TrEMBL record:
This is WEB family protein. GO terms for cellular component: cytosol. It comes from the Eukaryota. Residues 81-185, 217-299, 471-533 form a coiled coil. Residues 420-432 have a biased composition (Basic and acidic residues). The lineage of its organism: Eukaryota, Viridiplantae, Streptophyta, Embryophyta, Tracheophyta. One of its GO terms (biological process) is chloroplast accumulation movement. Belongs to the WEB family.
Length: 540
Protein backbone atom coordinates (compact mmCIF):
# COMPACT_ATOMS: atom_id res chain seq x y z
CA UNK A 1 0.00 0.00 0.00
CA UNK A 2 2.84 2.27 0.74
CA UNK A 3 4.38 1.52 -2.58
CA UNK A 4 1.22 2.37 -4.39
CA UNK A 5 1.06 5.79 -2.68
CA UNK A 6 4.69 6.43 -3.42
CA UNK A 7 4.14 5.54 -7.04
CA UNK A 8 1.11 7.75 -7.20
CA UNK A 9 3.04 10.52 -5.56
CA UNK A 10 5.94 10.01 -7.95
CA UNK A 11 3.57 10.23 -10.86
CA UNK A 12 1.98 13.36 -9.43
CA UNK A 13 5.32 14.92 -8.75
CA UNK A 14 6.58 14.03 -12.16
CA UNK A 15 3.73 15.86 -13.84
CA UNK A 16 2.67 18.81 -11.63
CA UNK A 17 1.75 21.13 -14.50
CA UNK A 18 -0.96 18.75 -15.75
CA UNK A 19 -2.87 19.33 -12.51
CA UNK A 20 -2.69 23.17 -12.45
CA UNK A 21 -6.21 23.73 -13.78
CA UNK A 22 -7.77 20.90 -11.70
CA UNK A 23 -9.47 21.36 -8.33
CA UNK A 24 -7.58 19.53 -5.63
CA UNK A 25 -9.34 19.25 -2.30
CA UNK A 26 -6.68 17.22 -0.63
CA UNK A 27 -3.54 19.38 -0.33
CA UNK A 28 -2.68 22.86 -1.54
CA UNK A 29 0.81 21.80 -2.61
CA UNK A 30 2.18 18.48 -3.81
CA UNK A 31 5.59 19.25 -2.34
CA UNK A 32 7.69 21.93 -0.68
CA UNK A 33 9.62 22.55 -3.90
CA UNK A 34 6.42 23.10 -5.81
CA UNK A 35 5.28 25.63 -3.20
CA UNK A 36 8.66 27.41 -3.21
CA UNK A 37 8.85 27.39 -6.99
CA UNK A 38 5.33 28.80 -7.23
CA UNK A 39 6.15 31.49 -4.64
CA UNK A 40 9.39 32.33 -6.46
CA UNK A 41 7.61 32.69 -9.77
CA UNK A 42 5.03 35.00 -8.19
CA UNK A 43 7.77 37.05 -6.51
CA UNK A 44 9.83 37.26 -9.65
CA UNK A 45 6.77 38.25 -11.68
CA UNK A 46 5.69 41.00 -9.20
CA UNK A 47 9.06 42.72 -8.79
CA UNK A 48 9.66 43.98 -12.35
CA UNK A 49 6.05 45.24 -12.46
CA UNK A 50 6.78 47.51 -9.50
CA UNK A 51 9.97 48.71 -11.12
CA UNK A 52 8.16 49.26 -14.39
CA UNK A 53 5.45 51.30 -12.68
CA UNK A 54 8.08 53.30 -10.82
CA UNK A 55 9.94 54.05 -14.04
CA UNK A 56 6.76 55.09 -15.84
CA UNK A 57 5.71 57.37 -12.93
CA UNK A 58 9.18 58.94 -12.87
CA UNK A 59 9.00 59.57 -16.63
CA UNK A 60 5.57 61.17 -16.24
CA UNK A 61 6.85 63.38 -13.39
CA UNK A 62 9.88 64.42 -15.49
CA UNK A 63 7.68 65.30 -18.43
CA UNK A 64 5.30 67.24 -16.19
CA UNK A 65 8.20 69.15 -14.63
CA UNK A 66 9.60 69.93 -18.08
CA UNK A 67 6.19 71.17 -19.19
CA UNK A 68 5.83 73.33 -16.07
CA UNK A 69 9.30 74.79 -16.57
CA UNK A 70 8.53 75.57 -20.22
CA UNK A 71 5.25 77.24 -19.22
CA UNK A 72 7.07 79.27 -16.59
CA UNK A 73 9.69 80.38 -19.11
CA UNK A 74 6.96 81.44 -21.56
CA UNK A 75 5.12 83.39 -18.86
CA UNK A 76 8.39 84.95 -17.71
CA UNK A 77 9.20 86.09 -21.25
CA UNK A 78 5.66 87.48 -21.59
CA UNK A 79 6.07 89.43 -18.36
CA UNK A 80 9.48 90.73 -19.46
CA UNK A 81 7.98 91.85 -22.79
CA UNK A 82 5.08 93.54 -21.02
CA UNK A 83 7.41 95.33 -18.61
CA UNK A 84 9.57 96.47 -21.54
CA UNK A 85 6.49 97.86 -23.28
CA UNK A 86 5.40 99.69 -20.12
CA UNK A 87 8.89 101.16 -19.65
CA UNK A 88 8.88 102.23 -23.30
CA UNK A 89 5.49 103.94 -22.89
CA UNK A 90 6.69 105.60 -19.69
CA UNK A 91 9.85 106.82 -21.41
CA UNK A 92 7.78 108.21 -24.28
CA UNK A 93 5.52 110.05 -21.84
CA UNK A 94 8.55 111.47 -20.01
CA UNK A 95 9.99 112.58 -23.37
CA UNK A 96 6.72 114.32 -24.25
CA UNK A 97 6.71 116.07 -20.87
CA UNK A 98 10.31 117.21 -21.40
CA UNK A 99 9.39 118.55 -24.85
CA UNK A 100 6.42 120.44 -23.41
CA UNK A 101 8.55 121.99 -20.67
CA UNK A 102 11.19 122.94 -23.26
CA UNK A 103 8.56 124.65 -25.41
CA UNK A 104 7.19 126.50 -22.38
CA UNK A 105 10.65 127.66 -21.40
CA UNK A 106 11.41 128.82 -24.96
CA UNK A 107 8.16 130.83 -25.03
CA UNK A 108 9.07 132.37 -21.68
CA UNK A 109 12.53 133.21 -22.98
CA UNK A 110 10.98 134.84 -26.05
CA UNK A 111 8.66 136.85 -23.82
CA UNK A 112 11.63 137.99 -21.72
CA UNK A 113 13.53 138.93 -24.90
CA UNK A 114 10.53 140.90 -26.15
CA UNK A 115 10.24 142.71 -22.82
CA UNK A 116 13.95 143.45 -23.00
CA UNK A 117 13.58 144.81 -26.53
CA UNK A 118 10.62 146.93 -25.48
CA UNK A 119 12.61 148.26 -22.52
CA UNK A 120 15.52 149.08 -24.83
CA UNK A 121 13.16 150.82 -27.26
CA UNK A 122 11.62 152.72 -24.35
CA UNK A 123 15.08 153.79 -23.20
CA UNK A 124 16.01 154.89 -26.71
CA UNK A 125 12.75 156.80 -27.04
CA UNK A 126 13.30 158.49 -23.69
CA UNK A 127 16.86 159.38 -24.67
CA UNK A 128 15.69 160.79 -27.99
CA UNK A 129 12.93 162.72 -26.23
CA UNK A 130 15.44 164.09 -23.72
CA UNK A 131 17.76 165.11 -26.55
CA UNK A 132 14.94 166.82 -28.39
CA UNK A 133 13.74 168.57 -25.27
CA UNK A 134 17.28 169.67 -24.51
CA UNK A 135 17.70 171.03 -28.02
CA UNK A 136 14.30 172.75 -27.96
CA UNK A 137 14.83 174.20 -24.53
CA UNK A 138 18.39 175.23 -25.34
CA UNK A 139 17.07 177.08 -28.38
CA UNK A 140 14.09 178.58 -26.56
CA UNK A 141 15.42 179.38 -23.11
CA UNK A 142 18.76 181.04 -23.75
CA UNK A 143 19.60 183.44 -20.97
CA UNK A 144 16.80 182.39 -18.64
CA UNK A 145 18.21 181.04 -15.36
CA UNK A 146 14.93 179.52 -14.16
CA UNK A 147 14.45 177.75 -17.46
CA UNK A 148 18.02 176.50 -17.28
CA UNK A 149 17.39 175.06 -13.84
CA UNK A 150 14.25 173.36 -15.11
CA UNK A 151 16.23 172.04 -18.07
CA UNK A 152 18.93 170.72 -15.73
CA UNK A 153 16.30 169.10 -13.53
CA UNK A 154 14.64 167.52 -16.57
CA UNK A 155 18.04 166.37 -17.78
CA UNK A 156 18.77 164.82 -14.40
CA UNK A 157 15.37 163.14 -14.41
CA UNK A 158 15.97 161.73 -17.86
CA UNK A 159 19.43 160.60 -16.83
CA UNK A 160 17.87 158.85 -13.86
CA UNK A 161 15.31 157.26 -16.19
CA UNK A 162 18.14 156.13 -18.48
CA UNK A 163 20.01 154.69 -15.49
CA UNK A 164 16.87 152.91 -14.37
CA UNK A 165 16.41 151.51 -17.86
CA UNK A 166 20.03 150.33 -17.88
CA UNK A 167 19.43 148.72 -14.49
CA UNK A 168 16.32 147.09 -15.94
CA UNK A 169 18.43 145.80 -18.86
CA UNK A 170 20.99 144.38 -16.44
CA UNK A 171 18.20 142.83 -14.41
CA UNK A 172 16.72 141.27 -17.54
CA UNK A 173 20.16 139.89 -18.47
CA UNK A 174 20.51 138.53 -14.95
CA UNK A 175 17.05 136.97 -15.19
CA UNK A 176 18.05 135.38 -18.49
CA UNK A 177 21.25 134.01 -16.96
CA UNK A 178 19.31 132.67 -13.98
CA UNK A 179 16.81 131.21 -16.41
CA UNK A 180 19.58 129.45 -18.36
CA UNK A 181 21.08 128.17 -15.11
CA UNK A 182 17.66 126.96 -14.04
CA UNK A 183 17.25 125.19 -17.39
CA UNK A 184 20.63 123.49 -16.95
CA UNK A 185 19.83 122.45 -13.38
CA UNK A 186 16.41 121.22 -14.49
CA UNK A 187 17.91 119.18 -17.31
CA UNK A 188 20.53 117.72 -14.94
CA UNK A 189 17.86 116.93 -12.36
CA UNK A 190 15.71 115.34 -15.06
CA UNK A 191 18.69 113.26 -16.18
CA UNK A 192 19.38 112.18 -12.59
CA UNK A 193 15.73 111.30 -12.10
CA UNK A 194 15.73 109.33 -15.36
CA UNK A 195 18.90 107.48 -14.33
CA UNK A 196 17.46 106.67 -10.92
CA UNK A 197 14.22 105.59 -12.55
CA UNK A 198 16.12 103.35 -14.96
CA UNK A 199 18.18 101.86 -12.13
CA UNK A 200 15.02 101.35 -10.08
CA UNK A 201 13.32 99.69 -13.03
CA UNK A 202 16.34 97.46 -13.57
CA UNK A 203 16.40 96.55 -9.89
CA UNK A 204 12.66 95.90 -9.96
CA UNK A 205 13.08 93.66 -12.98
CA UNK A 206 15.97 91.86 -11.28
CA UNK A 207 13.92 91.44 -8.11
CA UNK A 208 10.96 90.18 -10.09
CA UNK A 209 13.17 87.70 -11.94
CA UNK A 210 14.72 86.54 -8.68
CA UNK A 211 11.30 86.23 -7.07
CA UNK A 212 10.17 84.20 -10.05
CA UNK A 213 13.25 82.00 -9.76
CA UNK A 214 12.59 81.66 -6.03
CA UNK A 215 9.02 80.66 -6.77
CA UNK A 216 10.26 78.14 -9.32
CA UNK A 217 12.74 76.76 -6.79
CA UNK A 218 10.01 76.58 -4.18
CA UNK A 219 7.78 74.74 -6.60
CA UNK A 220 10.63 72.38 -7.48
CA UNK A 221 11.30 71.86 -3.76
CA UNK A 222 7.60 71.16 -3.25
CA UNK A 223 7.73 68.70 -6.11
CA UNK A 224 10.84 67.13 -4.56
CA UNK A 225 8.98 66.84 -1.28
CA UNK A 226 6.06 65.23 -3.07
CA UNK A 227 8.42 62.90 -4.96
CA UNK A 228 10.24 61.98 -1.73
CA UNK A 229 6.90 61.31 -0.05
CA UNK A 230 5.89 59.15 -3.00
CA UNK A 231 9.23 57.33 -2.82
CA UNK A 232 8.81 56.76 0.92
CA UNK A 233 5.30 55.51 0.29
CA UNK A 234 6.60 53.18 -2.41
CA UNK A 235 9.34 52.00 -0.03
CA UNK A 236 6.76 51.36 2.65
CA UNK A 237 4.66 49.44 0.12
CA UNK A 238 7.72 47.44 -0.93
CA UNK A 239 8.57 46.70 2.70
CA UNK A 240 4.98 45.63 3.30
CA UNK A 241 5.12 43.45 0.19
CA UNK A 242 8.44 42.01 1.36
CA UNK A 243 7.02 41.36 4.82
CA UNK A 244 3.99 39.72 3.23
CA UNK A 245 6.24 37.59 1.05
CA UNK A 246 8.41 36.65 4.02
CA UNK A 247 5.31 35.82 6.02
CA UNK A 248 4.00 33.83 3.09
CA UNK A 249 7.35 32.03 2.79
CA UNK A 250 7.32 31.28 6.51
CA UNK A 251 3.79 29.96 6.24
CA UNK A 252 4.76 27.88 3.22
CA UNK A 253 7.84 26.62 5.06
CA UNK A 254 5.74 25.71 8.09
CA UNK A 255 3.24 23.96 5.89
CA UNK A 256 6.07 22.18 4.09
CA UNK A 257 7.51 21.08 7.44
CA UNK A 258 4.09 19.79 8.41
CA UNK A 259 3.88 17.91 5.15
CA UNK A 260 7.40 16.66 5.76
CA UNK A 261 6.41 15.37 9.17
CA UNK A 262 3.42 13.68 7.62
CA UNK A 263 5.61 12.18 4.93
CA UNK A 264 8.14 11.08 7.52
CA UNK A 265 5.42 9.21 9.22
CA UNK A 266 4.59 7.60 5.90
CA UNK A 267 8.25 6.87 5.48
CA UNK A 268 9.51 6.03 2.00
CA UNK A 269 13.31 6.02 1.55
CA UNK A 270 13.26 7.06 -2.09
CA UNK A 271 10.70 9.69 -1.43
CA UNK A 272 12.77 10.90 1.51
CA UNK A 273 15.80 11.27 -0.66
CA UNK A 274 13.83 13.11 -3.27
CA UNK A 275 12.33 15.35 -0.64
CA UNK A 276 15.75 16.05 0.86
CA UNK A 277 17.04 17.00 -2.58
CA UNK A 278 14.01 19.17 -3.16
CA UNK A 279 14.41 20.68 0.31
CA UNK A 280 18.04 21.50 -0.42
CA UNK A 281 17.05 23.10 -3.70
CA UNK A 282 14.24 24.99 -2.01
CA UNK A 283 16.54 26.24 0.75
CA UNK A 284 19.07 27.32 -1.87
CA UNK A 285 16.36 29.19 -3.77
CA UNK A 286 15.16 30.76 -0.52
CA UNK A 287 18.70 31.95 0.23
CA UNK A 288 18.96 33.38 -3.28
CA UNK A 289 15.65 35.16 -2.81
CA UNK A 290 16.82 36.55 0.53
CA UNK A 291 20.05 37.81 -1.02
CA UNK A 292 18.12 39.46 -3.85
CA UNK A 293 15.78 41.03 -1.31
CA UNK A 294 18.77 42.32 0.67
CA UNK A 295 20.31 43.77 -2.51
CA UNK A 296 17.03 45.43 -3.48
CA UNK A 297 16.68 46.83 0.04
CA UNK A 298 20.26 48.16 -0.11
CA UNK A 299 19.56 49.79 -3.48
CA UNK A 300 16.36 51.35 -2.15
CA UNK A 301 18.20 52.66 0.90
CA UNK A 302 20.92 54.15 -1.33
CA UNK A 303 18.24 55.84 -3.42
CA UNK A 304 16.63 57.15 -0.27
CA UNK A 305 19.99 58.49 0.91
CA UNK A 306 20.58 60.19 -2.46
CA UNK A 307 17.10 61.70 -2.34
CA UNK A 308 17.63 62.93 1.23
CA UNK A 309 20.96 64.49 0.20
CA UNK A 310 19.28 66.18 -2.76
CA UNK A 311 16.46 67.33 -0.51
CA UNK A 312 18.94 68.81 1.98
CA UNK A 313 20.80 70.57 -0.83
CA UNK A 314 17.52 71.94 -2.17
CA UNK A 315 16.59 73.23 1.31
CA UNK A 316 20.02 74.88 1.59
CA UNK A 317 19.55 76.47 -1.84
CA UNK A 318 16.11 77.67 -0.76
CA UNK A 319 17.59 79.19 2.38
CA UNK A 320 20.31 80.92 0.34
CA UNK A 321 17.69 82.21 -2.10
CA UNK A 322 15.59 83.45 0.83
CA UNK A 323 18.58 85.34 2.27
CA UNK A 324 19.35 86.77 -1.17
CA UNK A 325 15.71 87.75 -1.52
CA UNK A 326 15.77 89.55 1.83
CA UNK A 327 18.99 91.36 0.88
CA UNK A 328 17.48 92.34 -2.47
CA UNK A 329 14.34 93.57 -0.75
CA UNK A 330 16.47 95.63 1.61
CA UNK A 331 18.40 97.01 -1.36
CA UNK A 332 15.11 97.74 -3.15
CA UNK A 333 13.77 99.64 -0.12
CA UNK A 334 17.01 101.63 0.08
CA UNK A 335 16.81 102.39 -3.64
CA UNK A 336 13.17 103.43 -3.25
CA UNK A 337 14.19 105.72 -0.37
CA UNK A 338 17.00 107.18 -2.50
CA UNK A 339 14.54 107.71 -5.33
CA UNK A 340 12.13 109.50 -2.98
CA UNK A 341 14.99 111.67 -1.71
CA UNK A 342 16.02 112.53 -5.27
CA UNK A 343 12.40 113.36 -6.14
CA UNK A 344 12.05 115.60 -3.07
CA UNK A 345 15.37 117.33 -3.82
CA UNK A 346 14.29 117.83 -7.42
CA UNK A 347 10.96 119.31 -6.30
CA UNK A 348 12.71 121.60 -3.81
CA UNK A 349 15.18 122.78 -6.46
CA UNK A 350 12.36 123.45 -8.91
CA UNK A 351 10.40 125.36 -6.27
CA UNK A 352 13.45 127.45 -5.32
CA UNK A 353 14.25 128.25 -8.94
CA UNK A 354 10.67 129.17 -9.69
CA UNK A 355 10.48 131.30 -6.55
CA UNK A 356 13.64 133.11 -7.66
CA UNK A 357 12.18 133.67 -11.11
CA UNK A 358 8.92 134.79 -9.54
CA UNK A 359 10.73 137.28 -7.26
CA UNK A 360 12.75 138.59 -10.20
CA UNK A 361 9.61 139.02 -12.26
CA UNK A 362 7.92 140.78 -9.34
CA UNK A 363 10.88 143.15 -9.06
CA UNK A 364 10.76 143.76 -12.80
CA UNK A 365 7.02 144.45 -12.73
CA UNK A 366 7.45 146.73 -9.71
CA UNK A 367 10.21 148.66 -11.48
CA UNK A 368 8.04 148.88 -14.61
CA UNK A 369 5.17 150.15 -12.49
CA UNK A 370 7.43 152.72 -10.85
CA UNK A 371 8.65 153.83 -14.27
CA UNK A 372 5.05 154.11 -15.47
CA UNK A 373 4.14 156.19 -12.41
CA UNK A 374 7.17 158.42 -12.91
CA UNK A 375 6.30 158.84 -16.57
CA UNK A 376 2.72 159.66 -15.56
CA UNK A 377 4.05 162.27 -13.14
CA UNK A 378 6.26 163.71 -15.85
CA UNK A 379 3.32 163.77 -18.24
CA UNK A 380 1.27 165.57 -15.59
CA UNK A 381 4.08 168.10 -15.14
CA UNK A 382 4.27 168.56 -18.88
CA UNK A 383 0.51 169.03 -18.98
CA UNK A 384 0.81 171.67 -16.27
CA UNK A 385 3.58 173.36 -18.27
CA UNK A 386 1.35 173.23 -21.33
CA UNK A 387 -1.49 174.80 -19.36
CA UNK A 388 0.91 177.51 -18.18
CA UNK A 389 2.05 178.04 -21.75
CA UNK A 390 -1.58 178.24 -22.84
CA UNK A 391 -2.16 180.88 -20.17
CA UNK A 392 0.95 182.71 -21.34
CA UNK A 393 -0.23 182.56 -24.94
CA UNK A 394 -3.65 183.79 -23.82
CA UNK A 395 -2.04 186.66 -21.92
CA UNK A 396 0.16 187.36 -24.92
CA UNK A 397 -2.87 187.45 -27.15
CA UNK A 398 -4.63 189.84 -24.73
CA UNK A 399 -1.48 191.91 -24.63
CA UNK A 400 -1.37 191.86 -28.41
CA UNK A 401 -4.98 193.00 -28.52
CA UNK A 402 -4.17 195.80 -26.04
CA UNK A 403 -1.14 196.75 -28.08
CA UNK A 404 -3.23 196.69 -31.22
CA UNK A 405 -5.71 199.04 -29.52
CA UNK A 406 -2.87 201.30 -28.47
CA UNK A 407 -1.48 201.04 -31.98
CA UNK A 408 -4.82 202.12 -33.39
CA UNK A 409 -4.84 205.05 -30.99
CA UNK A 410 -1.28 205.88 -31.97
CA UNK A 411 -2.22 205.63 -35.63
CA UNK A 412 -5.16 207.90 -35.01
CA UNK A 413 -2.88 210.33 -33.19
CA UNK A 414 -0.39 210.03 -36.02
CA UNK A 415 -3.14 210.74 -38.52
CA UNK A 416 -4.22 213.70 -36.42
CA UNK A 417 -0.61 214.84 -36.24
CA UNK A 418 -0.30 214.41 -39.98
CA UNK A 419 -3.50 216.40 -40.44
CA UNK A 420 -2.13 219.11 -38.13
CA UNK A 421 1.12 219.02 -40.05
CA UNK A 422 -0.78 219.30 -43.29
CA UNK A 423 -2.75 222.16 -41.83
CA UNK A 424 0.46 223.77 -40.66
CA UNK A 425 1.94 223.35 -44.15
CA UNK A 426 -1.14 224.90 -45.59
CA UNK A 427 -0.90 227.71 -43.04
CA UNK A 428 2.77 228.14 -43.91
CA UNK A 429 1.87 228.15 -47.56
CA UNK A 430 -0.77 230.75 -46.97
CA UNK A 431 1.69 232.73 -44.88
CA UNK A 432 4.33 232.56 -47.62
CA UNK A 433 1.78 233.55 -50.18
CA UNK A 434 0.73 236.36 -47.94
CA UNK A 435 4.36 237.46 -47.60
CA UNK A 436 4.71 237.52 -51.39
CA UNK A 437 1.59 239.58 -51.78
CA UNK A 438 2.63 241.90 -48.88
CA UNK A 439 4.57 244.10 -51.20
CA UNK A 440 1.56 244.67 -53.36
CA UNK A 441 -1.09 245.12 -50.78
CA UNK A 442 0.20 246.17 -47.36
CA UNK A 443 -3.25 247.23 -46.08
CA UNK A 444 -5.25 244.17 -47.00
CA UNK A 445 -2.88 241.41 -45.35
CA UNK A 446 -1.79 240.49 -41.79
CA UNK A 447 1.88 240.71 -40.91
CA UNK A 448 3.69 237.92 -38.83
CA UNK A 449 6.71 238.34 -36.68
CA UNK A 450 9.75 236.07 -37.29
CA UNK A 451 9.46 234.53 -33.76
CA UNK A 452 5.94 233.35 -34.52
CA UNK A 453 7.12 231.86 -37.77
CA UNK A 454 9.94 229.93 -36.00
CA UNK A 455 7.57 228.71 -33.32
CA UNK A 456 5.18 227.43 -35.94
CA UNK A 457 8.07 225.58 -37.65
CA UNK A 458 9.15 224.03 -34.34
CA UNK A 459 5.61 222.90 -33.56
CA UNK A 460 5.38 221.35 -36.98
CA UNK A 461 8.67 219.49 -36.51
CA UNK A 462 7.77 218.37 -32.97
CA UNK A 463 4.39 217.07 -34.03
CA UNK A 464 6.04 215.15 -36.90
CA UNK A 465 8.68 213.71 -34.57
CA UNK A 466 6.07 212.74 -31.97
CA UNK A 467 3.99 210.99 -34.59
CA UNK A 468 7.04 209.15 -35.91
CA UNK A 469 8.12 208.06 -32.42
CA UNK A 470 4.60 206.89 -31.58
CA UNK A 471 4.40 204.95 -34.80
CA UNK A 472 7.88 203.45 -34.17
CA UNK A 473 6.96 202.52 -30.59
CA UNK A 474 3.72 200.95 -31.74
CA UNK A 475 5.52 198.96 -34.43
CA UNK A 476 8.18 197.85 -31.90
CA UNK A 477 5.48 196.72 -29.46
CA UNK A 478 3.74 194.86 -32.28
CA UNK A 479 7.01 193.11 -33.17
CA UNK A 480 7.59 192.21 -29.51
CA UNK A 481 4.08 190.82 -29.21
CA UNK A 482 4.49 188.86 -32.42
CA UNK A 483 7.82 187.46 -31.19
CA UNK A 484 6.22 186.51 -27.87
CA UNK A 485 3.32 184.88 -29.65
CA UNK A 486 5.68 182.92 -31.88
CA UNK A 487 7.79 181.87 -28.88
CA UNK A 488 4.67 180.83 -26.94
CA UNK A 489 3.38 178.88 -29.93
CA UNK A 490 6.75 177.16 -30.33
CA UNK A 491 6.78 176.29 -26.62
CA UNK A 492 3.25 175.00 -26.88
CA UNK A 493 4.10 172.83 -29.90
CA UNK A 494 7.25 171.52 -28.19
CA UNK A 495 5.35 170.77 -24.99
CA UNK A 496 2.60 169.04 -26.94
CA UNK A 497 5.23 166.93 -28.72
CA UNK A 498 6.87 166.14 -25.38
CA UNK A 499 3.48 165.20 -23.93
CA UNK A 500 2.84 162.89 -26.90
CA UNK A 501 6.29 161.30 -26.51
CA UNK A 502 5.74 160.87 -22.78
CA UNK A 503 2.36 159.30 -23.52
CA UNK A 504 4.02 156.89 -25.96
CA UNK A 505 6.75 156.08 -23.41
CA UNK A 506 4.07 155.59 -20.74
CA UNK A 507 2.13 153.27 -23.03
CA UNK A 508 5.30 151.32 -23.79
CA UNK A 509 6.11 151.07 -20.09
CA UNK A 510 2.55 149.93 -19.36
CA UNK A 511 2.79 147.35 -22.14
CA UNK A 512 6.09 146.08 -20.74
CA UNK A 513 4.50 145.93 -17.28
CA UNK A 514 1.55 144.00 -18.70
CA UNK A 515 3.95 141.64 -20.48
CA UNK A 516 5.89 141.12 -17.26
CA UNK A 517 2.62 140.47 -15.41
CA UNK A 518 1.63 137.94 -18.09
CA UNK A 519 5.03 136.26 -17.77
CA UNK A 520 4.54 136.25 -14.00
CA UNK A 521 1.14 134.58 -14.43
CA UNK A 522 2.64 131.98 -16.77
CA UNK A 523 5.36 131.31 -14.21
CA UNK A 524 2.71 130.88 -11.52
CA UNK A 525 0.78 128.42 -13.70
CA UNK A 526 4.02 126.57 -14.51
CA UNK A 527 4.87 126.42 -10.81
CA UNK A 528 1.41 125.06 -10.01
CA UNK A 529 1.68 122.47 -12.78
CA UNK A 530 5.16 121.38 -11.62
CA UNK A 531 3.89 121.09 -8.05
CA UNK A 532 0.99 118.92 -9.21
CA UNK A 533 3.36 116.75 -11.27
CA UNK A 534 5.69 116.46 -8.28
CA UNK A 535 2.79 115.42 -6.04
CA UNK A 536 1.67 112.83 -8.60
CA UNK A 537 5.25 111.52 -8.85
CA UNK A 538 5.48 111.27 -5.05
CA UNK A 539 2.13 109.46 -4.90
CA UNK A 540 3.25 107.11 -7.69
Amino acid sequence: MVNIRGADQQKGSASPRAEVGEIDTKKPFQSVKAAVSLFGEVALKGKPAVRRSRLSSENVIDKETQLLLAQREVSRFKRVLQSAETTKARANSELQKAKRTLNDLTTKLKAVDESKKSAIETAEAVKEKARRLEEAKSQQLVGNAARKRELDEARQQYKMAARELNAAKQQINKIRQDFDAALESKSSSFQQAAETQRSANMNKERVSELSKEIGAMRESAQQLKIASAQIQEQQENLVEEKDARIHFCKAATAEAEKNLEILKKEYDPELTKNLEVKLAETSAEIELLQEEMKKAHALEMEKVKVLTIEFNEATKALQEIATEESSLRHMLTSLAADLENVKTEKIELLEKEIEKEYAAMEKETESARREAEELKKKAEEMRKNAEELKEETKNARLLAQDVEGKLELALKEAEEAKAAEKKAHEDMKTISESESIQDQDFGNKIKLAPEEFESLKKKEEESGNIADTKVADAMAQIEVVKARNKEAEKKLVANLKAIEEIKEATDMALRSAEMSEAAEKTLETQLQRWREEAQTMVVA
